[in-house]
Amino acid sequence: MKQAPKHPVRLERQGTIALIVIENPPVNALGVAVRRGIAAALNAAVAHDKTDAIVIAANGRTFPAGADIREFDMAAQEPSLGQLFDLIENAPKPVVAAIHGTALGGGLELAMAAHYRIASSDARMGLPEIHLGLLPGAGGTQRLPRLIGAELAFDMMMSGNQLSAGICAEIGLIDSVTSGDLRSEAVAYARTLTEVRPTALNRTHLMDGGDYMATVAARRAQVKADLGAGALAPLKIVDCVEAALLLPMDAGLQLERAAFEDCLASRESAGLRHAFFAERRAAKFPEAADAKPAKVERIAIVGGGTMGSGIAIAGLQSGFAVTLVEQGESGVNAALEQIGAFYERSIAKGRLSEAQGAAALTHLQLTNKLDTLGEADLIIEAIGEDFDLKASILAEIGAVAKPDAVIATNTSYLDLSALAAATGRPANTIGLHFFAPAQVNKLVEVGVHDAASAQAVMTGVGFAKAMGKTPVRARVHKGFGSGYIGNAILEAYRLAADIMLEDGATPAQIDGAMRSFGFPLGPYQIADMSGLDIAYARRQSKPRDPDVRYVEIADKMVEQGWLGQKTRRGYYIYAEGQRTGVPNGDVLKMISEHRAHKGITARKFSDRDIRDRILLAIVNAGARLLGEGVAARPSDIDTVMVHGFGYPRSRGGPMMDADATTPSIIASRLSVLAPEEPSLWAAAPVLTMLAQERQKFADLN
């Protein structure tokens, strides 16, 4: 990574225009050194009797892209962002912000504190704090509605979306857009202001108090209806925007700061910030010390089913040339139909234009010939989970791929080391485990086995990042099968749920308890959606551990032909064309008969019992993955669970939840919940393990 210069802010002069230049790579974050540098440069510029106006600009790829989030949990250091922006706003000489790249969060608040704003035509602006459970805390909630009005200000802050420079100019957020040299244009613009004295903030959008307050009231009601009273940051944003009209600027800023501190102290914000940093830590692979990603321009995918077609779409959307190989003409046609349907839907919904859809498809080659793989830089095998079939196909791929090509298998649970050996070039073979739907889900587990080269691993990581995915490392070793994090967690999750199902709970009750916790779907809704036959085939293909309780209910359902949504009958019954169902009474009867046959007396479970059993099982599985070295960090497990399985992002992830729970609480819940299931619940070392792994990471970083 490029190191920040010793002095991240410098003051230059272009005649009577003072130029404050920020250089704090990679994104010019507004850390304390930058804040102090800007303040010192501004004071020096104002004190110079030859200064007529001031331009604030940045070197590198972007205007400040936000505050330094790492400082949120540290003791405050002056000047704060708010103090700095007050200094800029109250400067006695005109200040112009020259915006390029992305002005986000504190970066946009810096620009709004300036008296004028000019942006390059490709610049983008936004206030994404809501994604961290926060609100703009350095004047954004007070200055933005004054510039663009309450309705548009709410839209920007509640969504966190980025807007183009053109749109920002249309709504009044910036004063000018240029396609030329931004720095020169900004200095020229500043020269036109030499006879202008800075005035109070634009208050035109605060003039009609009746309409403004009606907008505030409507947005408050909408937030409460959609998100509930627990939606702290959105409700605080409403309060702050209301204050922009009702209170003097100084009082409004004080209220905003108090609201920001309340949000910062919330469990939701802590979870969201943890998830944010966890994603970035997950992308740091140790192999990066020895190799860099090789260039990938053309990818090839062998297998055009749902997963293979999804990977192909993701590749096309990211600008890769894609070769998709499927068996026979009928297979090729089926893959083309799936991919074509995606683009038709995207065009119909306005996500893509017809021209964009057509352009993407020009980069797709569909064939049933494996010998077309010789031009690909990266080849992904994505056929069904049959070891012999995969090994055979991978051997053929190894024979035709070019010498430096990276080969990846999308296996979700088969032995990666053995599959890599089948290619004849294990050093160039890795795992790339995409999560469905591959064209949407951001998670990719990168399987690393002992023989894999650092070059192959980092090429896989680079490819995942180029597709906008979040890569997570999973280390495979002998005796641990595929070694993937997600499947090990999912097995523990499903086993905990199935034991409760057998012991007295219902599918709907378990699903409801997990939805109320924050999962988008419960485990049995997901099973119906995925198809019960998929998991059944996997269970039948692997030996059972005699020490682990086995629940046969799902097997009996498959044997009855109840496969979920695909047969309109699973744990739920589905009407034609419907994705939500009603409980299947036949399944409830089957479960009751099953219990009677096994001599199980049904017991009652509270929603808390259900939630805690499942979460403790997940955490226990995570601790085992850390102990085995499959997962490098607890936060990697959190990233997999958030992106792969819908764990509520606002909680950070299961390992963060475990960190927030005292050992005595875990011990007491274990003793109450399932003392008879030691193989599932032997989680005594969980917190110790987490503490050790967290300390290791801290020592390394």
TrEMBL record:
Subcellular location: Peroxisome
Boundaries of every 3-hydroxyacyl-CoA dehydrogenase C-terminal domain copy: 483-574, 612-692
GO MF assignments: (3S)-3-hydroxyacyl-CoA dehydrogenase (NAD+) activity; enoyl-CoA hydratase activity; isomerase activity; NAD+ binding
Alphabetized UniProt keyword annotations: Fatty acid metabolism, Isomerase, Lipid degradation, Lipid metabolism, Lyase, Multifunctional enzyme, NAD, Oxidoreductase, Peroxisome
Pathway per the UniProt entry: Lipid metabolism; fatty acid beta-oxidation
Gene3D superfamilies named among the record's database cross-references: 1.10.1040.50, 2-enoyl-CoA Hydratase, Chain A, domain 1, NAD(P)-binding Rossmann-like Domain
Keyword Protein biosynthesis in annotation: no
One of the GO biological process terms: fatty acid beta-oxidation
Domain 3-hydroxyacyl-CoA dehydrogenase NAD binding: 299-474
The keyword Amino-acid biosynthesis belongs to this UniProt entry's keyword annotation: no
Catalytic function, reaction form: a (3S)-3-hydroxyacyl-CoA + NAD(+) = a 3-oxoacyl-CoA + NADH + H(+)
A Pfam family this chain is assigned to: 3HCDH_N
Known partners and oligomeric status: Monomer.
Family classification: In the N-terminal section; belongs to the enoyl-CoA hydratase/isomerase family. Belongs to the enoyl-CoA hydratase/isomerase family.
Protein name in the entry: 3-hydroxyacyl-CoA dehydrogenase
Organism: Litoreibacter albidus
